[in-house]
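Suppose a colleague, Dr. K., hands you the sequence of a protein chain of 126 amino acids and asks what its three-dimensional shape might be. Before reaching for any lab equipment, you can write down a predicted structure in token form. Begin with the sequence itself:
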Amino acid sequence: QVQLVESGGGLVQAGGSLRLSCTVSGVSFPWYNMGWFRQAPGKEREFVGVINWNGGVIYYADSVKGRFTISRDNAKNTVYLQMNSLEPEDTAVYYCAGKLSRGSYVPQLGSEYNYWGQGTQVTVSS
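The predicted structure, expressed as tokens, is then:
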């Protein structure tokens, strides 16, 4: 059974930081590209960033570039999203997602992903 479990969400003041984790089980994690998405109330799901299987390719949405950092630890089957300089506009449910691939292509569309976590709430107060 494949499971992606996010953790680390919470309430933080604007300008603060949070680190989200997503631990994967049931699949061979090093074979997966891992993406982060978010969805704010009343809005469409939004791509945040993606890291390829070995961490050699990382892309970010323009809205988070320079503030968020994605990393992974294949020995721990975990991908991370370090979020700094948080803004109220970052308030959303954050999801991790996995796509089986060992190529150089890293997907940025949610429809391309095979598996999803249940999400973790991030709330940034002004």
